[in-house]
Amino acid sequence: MADQQILIVGCGDIGSRTAVGLVARGYQVFGARRSVAALPDGVQALRLDVSDLNSWFDLTLQPDYIVYSVAAGGFTEASYQAAYADGVRNMLTWLTEQRIQPKRIFFVSSTSVYGQNEGETVDENTPTQPQGFAGRIMLEAEEALRNSVFSHTVLRFSGIYGPGRDLLIRQVKQGRIAPEVPVMYSNRIHSEDCAGVINHLLVMDHAEEAIDSLYLATDKGSVPIYEVMRWMADELEVTPTEIVEAPTKRRASKCCLNQRLLATGYIFQYPTYREGYAPALAAIKAQS
């Protein structure tokens, strides 16, 4: 597969995990980001600022696949606009003017495009009603792809957790916990499964197996966030002393369905929060 060039735009946490899997499968992987330090072994580094159109035209490769997995520089409207809406439009301009036709573009999006927050069930067919700038701008980037001539797949990841993403664990260690009532449903996916999903679908497409243009990517456990934090507290033998009304910073409550993803045959490495958080909790207990 060395003749297949994969360009990972924004080769940070998820992009790097994705790259490791693709390199192991024999693909030729290029990682493009503003800082090219500390990319995984086997990944060829490219310098790129997605918000700068000229930066795109400094790239000389013609990738067979593109994985757009950019992290905004901060949780501000300007940062999101630059990373997602502007970045995707610049990519599409570069591809069009350079007459590059990748087999498929994979765009890492977010369930923030859903504005439902009363415990509703959502899937790929649910109308998007973003309530904040993050969801609105992410949806703008999705629509730019939908309106383009390029084959693409949008991946709406739910709350990503894993190494370096331990907000809930830190809060529980401090004795803080979500309220039991009103119920706030939460959805999550481990960072290793984010990479796993991208690898799985890219390999399927390369094998000319049919894949969809949109997937809601979340694990098998849409549960009240109180349940998650209560379980953590029990595991760490911590007695909660304070209620946190919005422990994930952005108050939301919906139940995300992943049937379309499961129908592709993807098998989760961490199917629920229990498997995903267990190693981190075990490490904390071993240190105490």
Automatic annotation (TrEMBL):
Cellular component GO terms held in the UniProt record: cytoplasm
Entry-linked Gene3D superfamilies: NAD(P)-binding Rossmann-like Domain
GO molecular function terms attached to this record: aldehyde dehydrogenase (NAD+) activity
Ranges for domain NAD-dependent epimerase/dehydratase: 6-165
A Pfam family hit: Epimerase
Source domain of life: Bacteria
Protein name as annotated: NAD-dependent epimerase/dehydratase domain-containing protein
